[in-house]
Amino acid sequence: MSEAESPSVLAATHEVINQVPPLAGHNLYAGDTALREAVQHNGGHWAEDDLQRYGEVCGRPEMIERGYNANEFKPIFESHDRSGNRIDLVRYHPSYHQLMQLALSEGLHSAPWTDPGPGAHVVRAAKYYLHSQLEAGHGCPITMTFASVPSIRLNPQLADEWLPKITARGYDSSNRPYTEKSALTIGMGMTEKQGGSDVRANTSTATPMGDGTYELVGHKWFMSAPMCDAFLMLAQAPGGLSCFLVPRWRPDGSKNPLQVQRLKKKAGNVSNASSEVEMRGALGWLIGEEGRGVNAIIEMVATTRFDCMIGSSSGQRQAVVQAIYHASQRSTFGNILIDQPLMQNVLADLQLEVEGSVAMTMRIARALDHLDREHEQMLMRLGTAVGKYWICKRTPHHAYEAMECLGGNGIIENFITARLYRDAPINAIWEGSGNIQALDVLRAIAKAPAVITHWFDELEQSKGTDLRYDRALVRLKNEFSNRDEIEYRARHLVDQLALTMQAHLLVQGGNSAVAEAFIASRLNTVGAHNTGCLPTGVDVTTLIERGNPLAV
Ligand SMILES: Cc1cc2nc3c(=O)[nH]c(=O)nc-3n(C[C@H](O)[C@H](O)[C@H](O)COP(=O)(O)OP(=O)(O)OC[C@H]3O[C@@H](n4cnc5c(N)ncnc54)[C@H](O)[C@@H]3O)c2cc1C
Questions:
Q1: Less Cβ around it within 10 Å: N or C end of the chain?
Q2: What is the pLDDT of residues 171-229, one digit of tens each?
Q3: Burial annotation 437-446 (CB, 10 A radius, 16+ → b, else e)
Q4: Last residue of a domain, one of 291, 309, 334
Q5: Are residues 199 and 147 in the same domain?
Q6: Does 327 lie in the same domain as 416?
């Protein structure tokens, strides 16, 4: 055999060039100018060192690997053990547990409850935003645990027993009674087959047992993270729809008959198990009053909606990180992508979206830190609905455009962009889908007109800085003074509430290039257009630099 025909020579078909190595080992916080500025601006400056530390943790290669593993090795459900005993066990890849452990040890589920004060929500939001860039699915039980606290407080006896363990900075994934654990997680079951948005259509029943407990019979069509230690659930009690805390195990150590039927096969959010369950006489404790279940659980829902804002902003950020990083290394037609004008327009537009999302999320975090002030309370009431609607709804298309920046690689599963895309619609759909948020905005205004007055008061702060902004404000006020077919127009109204608020916050944020680009492209244009249609004159260099994860 001649040398030219030897197998090793034949196998060497080509040299791999112009492929971009994975991004790892960078500091997610240090490389995020928009986030750092928003944290400073909204009262989180005291946590700068901690955020720098956590930004480094979240950029470590082994952490990134855990995000991939938790999605590649999907949760598996086992109804019974090998002897036939009912166990309702979900098995996860160890990486999922490691991510849970990290999130809980950092207090992402509890810090503002255990250590409240100025900036507490802002800092927790910033950390969660960094953390979620590793993996979004396990955030579901983190968020639900966090959000359960205000609802559980409505029952002081339960609060005394459960909250110290719910807010503890630990993780115990073992399948055993809550009484034996020092750290607990909480889920929720509202959605039933016949209705998710319209929870008043719930048919599950709760019968008082005469000893202060209730017995729940019925089903839940979506109950995510079924390994949580207890769930806030709605069921029809004699006094009407009521809220209950339903543990997986009874206080006597026996299994509560809350039986998982199967896990959903979801298109995204696959690291997070979402189950269908039946309550076959499950023990539950009343939260709040009978017949006021929606009021009790709404405390939880408001917080989960806020976390949807954090989660989707975080997804947008990670998408931009990947798009800009890729474009800074990949050549086409003899030039680096990031230097090519049309790609610059796309990248800058993607970053501009993140700027608006971060500004709004952090502003609402600040409102949460100051709920003793009426203005902040009103801003929070409308802001969670407007922000959840807008940011979550913008994310799927944003994820797709970022994915396209990577070309074909973008949709391949060992590039995170594919996962970001699959996960992107989840936050928009759960916890009140788009229309429900838009209608909630109208409901909030009808119930307490002060919410819109305070919203406009906030927007007035930037009046006079830009004529295009002032005009948008006038248009918005006119739209609200017209009550004709207001439900039909609700999405359009909420779009405008979101855009003007983001513009205002970016004006206040103090970077004139960002504010100018936002107003020029979001407030001053008519009709539909795609990402990457920023008008000429926009300072794309500044925007791309702000989005570049390696530009510190
Ligand atoms: C990944 C994932 C995890 C989930 N986890 C949980 C969980 O842990 N616990 C839980 O309880 N639920 C969970 N859900 C369920 C979720 O909250 C519901 O799917 C959601 O609230 C919508 O309810 P539905 O599916 O019944 O749709 P429907 O209520 O039937 O709504 C269908 C569509 O109609 C729209 N709509 C409804 N009413 C109106 C109206 N009056 N006017 C105009 N449009 C309207 C909605 O916006 C929606 O787009 C989860 C969902 C997903 C995707």
A1: N
A2: 999 999 999 999 999 999 999 999 999 999 999 999 999 999 999 999 999 999 999 99
A3: bbbbbbebbe
A4: 291
A5: yes
A6: yes
pLDDT over 70 for what percent of the chain? 98
Cα of 480 vs centre of ligand 1, distance in Å, is: 27
**CB 544 within 8 Å of CB 348:** yes
Cβ-count burial 65-77 (b if 16+ within 10 Å, e if not): ebbbbbbebbbee
| Residues 277 and 310 grouped into a single domain | no
Positive or negative: CA dihedral 72, 75, 76, 82: positive
Q: Quick check: CB of 195 below 6 Å from ligand 1? A: yes
Per the structure, how many domains does the chain have?
2
Locus of tokens 């086409």: 332
Tens-place pLDDT, residues 44-98 = 999 999 999 999 999 999 999 999 999 999 999 999 999 999 999 999 999 999 9
The predicted-structure confidence for 536-550, as pLDDT tens digits, reads as follows 999 999 999 999 999
Check if 269 has its Cβ closer than 6 Å to any atom of ligand 1.
yes
Is the shortest distance between the CB of 429 and ligand 1 below 6 Å?
A: yes
pLDDT computed for residue 299 by the predictor: 76
Q: Strand pairing partners for 236?
A: 205, 241
Whether this model's pTM surpasses 0.90: yes
Query: 271, 291, 311 — which closes off a domain?
Result: 291
In a shared domain, residues 425 and 277: no
408 DSSP assignment: G
Q: Which residues contact 311 (CB under 8 A, 6 or more apart)?
A: 128, 132, 136, 139, 143, 427
